[in-house]
Amino acid sequence: MLGLFRVVVDGLPVEERRFTRRKPKLLVKLLALEPHHRLHRERLMELLWPDSDPDAASNNLHKAIHMARQALEPGLRAAADSHFILTRGRQVVLCAPGKLWIDVDAFEQAAAAAVKGEDEGGYVNALSLYGGDLLAGDIYEDWAAARREQLRGAYRELLQRYARLLEAGGQYQRSVERLRELVACDPSNEEAHRQLMRLYAATGRRQQALRQYAECREVLRRELDAEPERATRALNEEIIAERVRPLPRAAAGAPRRAAASNSLAILPFVNASADPGLEYLSDGITESIINNLSQLPQLRVMARSTVFRYKGVEVDPQEVGSRLGVGAVLTGRVLHRGDALNIQTELVDVSDGSQVWGEQYNRKASDIFKVQEEIAKELAGKLRLGLSGEEKGRLNKRHTENMEAYQLYLKGRYFWNKRTIEGVKRGMGYFQQAIGIDPDYAAAYAGLADCYAKLGDVGTPAMPSKEAFFQGKIAAIKALEIDGALAEAHTSLAHFHMHEYKWSEAEREFERAFESNPNYATAHHWYAYCLLMVGRPDEALTEIARALELDPLSLPINCDFGDILYFARRYDCAVEQLQKTLEMDPQYLQARVDLARVYEQKGMYKEAVAEFLKAKELSADNVDVLASLAHTFAVSGEREEASKVLARLKKLSKRKYVSPYSLAVVYTGLGEKDRVFEWLHRAYEENAEWMIYLTLDPRFDPLRTDSRFTELVRRVGLHEAQV
Fold first, then answer.
1. CB–CB of 68/47 below 8 Å?
2. What whole-number distance in Å separates Cα of residue 631 and Cα of residue 624?
3. Which backbone phi and psi does 326 adopt, to 5 degrees?
């Protein structure tokens, strides 16, 4: 009921085409909205056929009940057999034999619990249930107006309360993000503007605070023909005069997160050997310890991509731990000479900077497995985790006993983590060599699957997606045949299922990945997209937020948070998130591309073109960049420029893979519908990487009423109502 109307029976969405008439669908909506999900027949007739005489209205209601039952239960033979819409005397009732779940009810209950409990989890749960305004497709129905406004008010109050809770906990940036959401859905909320102004100023972002005041003033003038209140003007003057007091720990830079108990960051071990070619070894040892400990559900371990942002940088472990919000930080040094291996470790308590534990291991290089296991056990003991027998077994688990195969695997991961096409291809070679030495090396097969996923994925397809995903799926399945508890392989297999349009299978694999490793950030990251594609945008945002909690400095996750906001049509929030990502790394290509796409949807064509051109400078003939640039030229009226870029893409296709989806995007901008569907059908046949975004991509909005588009959506296992 919140957002676009959707009915799900036994986990399967009811297709829109089953509701052959409007009134039967309205009947279901009316019953769902009532507190006890029942209405008197006369009241239904009054609401649905106010201008009909009683006999005609009664006959119409009888037909509507029958048609609604048929929509929910195809093949229903007798009215008495209905499980969902019953008639009890003069009452018509909506029910279910198992459980009737209605998001409006769930949201109101969760909102009340959040306000009462004042804990972050309660707010996240309640906000995730609000999928949009009540019955967004029925804005002209008077009977829904009052309830819509009531729910809208409850949602806004939750956002405001949650923002205050986050600020009180020192999570200033997250508080800002919630307030930006509030302002986006309630632009004239002056109190929210004031909170943003104060937070920006108190965390050292004075210019943003001043821009927020200008935005507030403009909105109030445009929507209410009013000027800002005295309190807002006074705050603006304080900001100009730099009299706003900094919040605790915010003056020194980005706000720190509150340290959590049973949480750990393992900083990249330093390669103390004279040979830089051994960098893969120190990185690999670090990553292995992270992977081992992240399997423990009672411990939150910062992901590799976050801690490796500190690689090669002299840092204070206590300072880093405070910023990452963890209770302890492990540092280490690796010295490898001949057959001798020396590893030094130190565990620092973030609360006071004291050393909790330190150890030096002098072993033979062939003892590397034992050393890694000992370090993981020592850490678990010092953190007082109280491991079960099964959990101790996880720490002792080895994927290979062959030292040569293991070193090749470490080299494969070293190059894979560069995330460049060249790096991934080199990594693939090392994984294949490792498998050649040990054919039962599950982790190496998982690494190979990851390589294929990257080579065929959105934005970077270096080979036809269908071929890449087919080969990757074989590798993932092989890994799971050897080790069914490998979270990385379950996650990769879920990714390939998504591109085969097997949505329930994908979700099942993600669930298995979480069972094996609840701290695997990549699983949460990719699952967010799966949820988005099957019409659960708020759950997707919750999931990507969980990924970011585990891996807060990951460029791909930060960027894709903005990407998901874009696909959820929350453009202002997307801009803010993508700009934040570019502050972390101005050279990060995908953030430039995503930001440009958001600007295009906001009608900011000049800014969009500028960003696409910057992205073009960062990439060598990136197909995704060129196609998106051509689309922007086309929709902004620069058809000649669009045609030039299109010609460039066709020329490129003779020497590299050009996704048919990308060409469909260009022809959509040019308004050539027949060519669009020609290329989209080819994209479907080739399992092109972008096809799973079909219902989400706003560039295809002009096609959504075309029956050919509806048929394509059906073929990829999605439903237009889920957009």
1. no
2. 11
3. -115, 160
